[in-house]
Design a protein that fits this description.
Structural class: mainly beta
Shape: elongated
Oligomer: single chain
Number of helices: 2
Radius of gyration: 17 Å
Strand order of the largest sheet: 1-4
């Protein structure tokens, strides 16, 4: 995770170690599913707890603002954090032949009915 496009704020974590990645039941074969690391808003934790543990501790300011609310400002790792980027690395297999490709991905919301799709051009050079 990264905030405000500033690499010095990078917070690395392992989705594999947290059990947030799987290839079971995915289509097409060889694709994978990975959980987005942002749990529901901290203000909802009193009702039902965090949907899962965030990758960083929320500040006292965030926790104070969240009392009785589903959204609080200043939260970095839950709810709707401001200026957050989720950075991921994609490993292109060494056996991939040189050429131009399109890398496509989709985001499915875990606790809502939204799906986002996006893609990027990739050129593999020998």
């Amino acid at each position: 995770m990264r905030w405000d496009g500033d690499k010095s704020t990078d917070l690395p974590f392992s989705p594999v170690a947290r059990g947030w990645q799987t290839t079971k039941g995915t289509f097409p074969a060889g694709s994978m599913w990975r959980k987005v690391p942002i749990p529901r808003g901290i203000g909802q934790w009193d009702e039902s707890g965090a949907s899962f543990e965030p990758v960083c501790d929320e500040s006292a300011e965030c926790r104070k603002q969240a009392l009785g609310k589903s959204y609080a400002q200043g939260c970095r790792c839950s709810g709707q954090p401001q200026n957050l980027e989720i950075v991921d690395r994609v490993l292109i297999p060494a056996s991939t032949k040189p050429g131009r490709y399109v890398l496509g991905w989709r985001w499915d919301t875990e606790e809502g009915g939204q799906v986002w799709n996006s893609c990027s051009d990739v050129e593999v050079i020998a």
